[in-house]
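dude i think i finally got it to work??
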Amino acid sequence: MGGRHVLRRALAWLAPFALVPLAVACGESKSAEPSPAAVATAEALSRAVTITAPSGTTPEAGGGSSSVRLAGHIFGSGPVGVILVHGRPTDQTAWFPYATQLAASGTYTVLTFDFRGFGDSKGEKDFNAVDTDLTAAYRYMRDDLGRSRIFLVGASIGGTASLVVATRLPVAGVVSISSPGEFPPLDATEAVQKLAVPKLFIVSKNDVPQAIDQATMVAAAPQPKEAVVYEGTLHGTDLLQGPHAREVEQRITAFLGNN
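look at this
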């Protein structure tokens, strides 16, 4: 398929959402964080867990193995699993307020975790291993917590990893927020073409290049799919702290409930 044809399809998908009347956000911050009180409340309402992930993306020479310990938190005990995946430069605490709210419904068991080298997780930062860490979190949710129906909700590079991992493991659906189409070695633009599960894409209109990447991915992805574009520049979980926070949360929750 020619590049111009793909671009026309992407713009065609983006245009209708750009016409939705949304309030213009002002004074947006690129480093929004939950308040210390919100983080403390979330910690009190959750339990800390440790997830074991392979230390590398390939087996060690001689057949040996090693691992890295990832810090996580479990919210709630509902029958449906939801893994909230953070982006860069944030950590799992960016998801804490929403994780607390989602778990309060009684429907979900919610898992947040820090990629290696982030937050309280061990090891060095390794962006080549974000899919490895997410896979370890998924297996923890499935094997240790006993949840067979699992959604992935990822922001920024966490969204890229979620879209790719969802083509490798059985998931109930994926939410992508401000996800780059490519974050080498991960290629979400290619992955979405074979991702048949329900998908929700969320981005800010002026969050470039992610807004362009989202339009391209939405055009390439098969049904079922939904896409939302908000005014402004907020990126990833910063959308959960901005003027559209309530609507973003409601859209994600509705997506989970409908699928």
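Residues 240 and 249 are 7 Å apart (CA to CA).
im so relieved honestly
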